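Hey, can you fold this one?
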Amino acid sequence: MKRRLVLQGLLAAVPAAGALSALLAAPRQARALGGLLPELDQAAPPFALTGFVPPGSAGERSLKDFQGRWLVLYFYPKDFTGGCTLEARGFQQDLAQFHQLGAEVVGVSADSAESHASFCGSEGLAFPLLSDPGGLVSRTYGSWIAPFSQRHSFLIDPAGILRERWVAVRPSGHSQEILASLQARIAATPSPSPIR
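Sure. Predicted structure:
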């Protein structure tokens, strides 16, 4: 009698199992602690933020400003904290290599432009740090838990397509991790054939 009940239960569950497998197979947007992450191989969410742009001025930067170049867009919690300083120093140390590969580096946090200017001056940073005090852009990149941006990074190609993302990164060595990924992507891209 028990076997019959178990078999009846299994047979009744088969249509439900089919619905469950269909649900599991459906593509879902990736989530991170800071929210929904933008989809890979799609247009990167646009942004326009003010901040500190070395060599010494405040200014606005947008995604459009980086068309034709790779962009490393990294979000971090706060200027002058241990992990954020370590991460920024890593990007500064590797900045020349990023530039040789046709890439720019831009940091985003909720800090003010004045704080960014002080942080860049203190650490000798030669790349822009943009201010997102309300987390509007950070939210579109799944990188916001008020009142801070979360430590996520994104690699955007020269056409503005989001190619890679790193979530909840460790600051130590993160710049090298992105640099290696960028080098691999560039090496895998076929060069245009010479015109004959």
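The longest helix spans residues 2-25. Let me know if you want another pass with a different chain boundary.
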